[in-house]
Amino acid sequence: MSVDLQTVKRVAHLARIAVNEEDAERMTGELNAILGFVEQLNEVDVSGVEPMTSVTPMEMKKRQDVVTDGSKATDIVANAPATDENFFLVPKVVE
Amino acid sequence: MSDLTQLTISQARAKLRGKEITATEITEAYLSAIDRANPALNAYVAVTGDKARDMAKASDAKLAKGEGGALEGIPLGIKDLFGTEGVHTQACSHVLDGFKPRYESTVTANLWADGAVMLGKLNMDEFAMGSSNETSYYGPVINPWRRSRLDTVVMPTTHQGDGGFVSAGGTRTARSLDNAQLVPGGSSGGSATAVSAFLCAGATATDTGGSIRQPAAFTGTVGIKPTYGRCSRWGIVAFASSLDQAGPIARDVRDAAILLKSMASVDPKDTTSVDRPVPDYEAAIGKPIKGMKVGIPREYRVDGMPEEIEALWQKGIAWLKDAGAEIVDISLPHTKYALPAYYIVAPAEASSNLARYDGVRYGLRVPGKDIVDMYEKTRAAGFGREVKRRIMIGTYVLSAGYYDAYYLQAQKVRNLIKRDFETVFAAGVDVILTPATPSAAFGIADEDMAADPVKMYLNDIFTVTVNMAGLPGIAVPAGLDAKGLPLGLQLIGRPFDEETLFQTAAVIEQAAGTFQPEKWW
């Protein structure tokens, strides 16, 4: 399988990365080189093989459903580019 | 007192406890070494001198009272991927500009609890994506090792015998260093360079496809990626969560064992961290390997592999045989599919993990006409080329209609890779010996690799299988190539059997010796 310029632009938008025409053209070549490389996986017989879900066999750990953390609003917004009274500020999303 | 930066961690530990030196003295020695070397090597992206001096002072107070932890007063470098409270933590990406976390990663917290001193944050490939440390926003790290060549020099007879071999005819051969700058490998290139160039006693690193072991091999240092789940991933910037593991890079096997003991722990904040006691890894060093079964996988003999790598591998086999190990040929039939499967699984997980960098909660923000435009512009400006490439691949293979063909297929192949290892371990193999990398360190801005991303990815061909199967792997220096560059061997062990890796690596180290670059910086 290979991707065309339109697909690359669509994927870039899905990934929320702005690309210009030149970026998209370069990425098309690079992505096709990588997709060509991974194509060899199709020759592996995987009939009856389950997809891996956990690399080491382990029971899912569960903890008591109680609050163990919190009251850190100042810490949480401390690194944000724009805040107001412990809220993150973003461009207007509702007209 | 000779240069304190030359001491291994175990040597420094003895001198600190014996009150022959102080934590402040050794910390100052490293800080001034960094000061002199960093402009040339670019290993550190942030030096935390004040913090280091405060920590050293606190260590000295403890040591004076005969107290202190396992690493009391030992100065370490920390890869920029580890969250360090109030200190530069950017995964060497522009998108995390100015980020100073309000928390400490579990691994670094463990090190500080044991008394270690933080010298600063180490350069790396952006988001740990790369095999040469050239994708860092802070520029490439330079390998302290350089190629050397043998020159024949005609010597006036009065200048005989100053280190070269004097021949009867008044000529001598001398090794001279080539000026070409080499990469230290990646992604933990800053960690490997800093350890190799004596800019820290040891360093933290992380390994998703070979990012500890390949740079260790390129710089003549020891690097271990422990079993998935041995170290907590909490507070480490995530790349591919099912593959990422933290581990140390150190100057010798013993130092790596000392560091891993402190780094490893079970952690309620990482549900994939494993609840089993951390053994005393150092105790495994020096134990005989007589009767140990060492597997040699035939699939690791790849086309185009330099003869020197094959020769090194044979040397490793001979050393282990001489020490009484039983050598057995084994087959890991799905080896060649590990790298292509990795380049589906790792980008898929990365595209999801890196979705959080949106210009809202931390780091860079580039204004846009609306919120989506702001996201797209921020991410376009904040991520470098390699990171964008991997996010794009990941987004594509997870997108509607392609998920089964790519991601599901890769996760099935991954189970087959794991099964290969389980089969040989079940047949009684204790440890597997392979080369660590398919070549020695290559040049900065290598044209072939810049032109074809897949060429760069092939650096991880011997290491990536280990991440795919969640196993522990150690890279240990085993010799120099004809150009005087270090080469490493890799040992792969059973899950949570890091002790056998330290035990066997120590035998290789004993036979091969340790390697230091000639100082030019």
Question: Concise description?
Answer:
The complex is a heterodimer of chains A (95) and B (521). With 95 residues, chain A is mainly α.
Output the keywords.
heterodimer, A: 95 residues, mainly alpha, Histone, subunit A, two-stranded antiparallel sheet, 2 strands, B: 521 residues, alpha/beta, Amidase signature (AS) enzymes, three-stranded antiparallel sheet, 16 helices
The greatest interface here is: A-B, 53 and 75 residues
Note the total helix count of chain B.
16
From the N-terminal CA to the C-terminal CA of chain A, the straight-line distance is 42 Å
**What summary fits the major beta sheet of chain B?**
11 strands, mixed
CATH fold assignment of the largest domain in chain B: Amidase signature (AS) enzymes
Gross morphology of chain A is flat
Shape descriptor of chain B reads globular
Structurally, how many domains make up the residues of chain B? 3
Q: Enumerate the spans of chain B where pLDDT stays under 50 for 5 or more consecutive residues.
A: 158-167
Please state the structural category of chain A.
mainly alpha
The SSE string of chain A, one letter per element, is: HHHEE
Percentage of residues in helical conformation of chain B: 25-40%
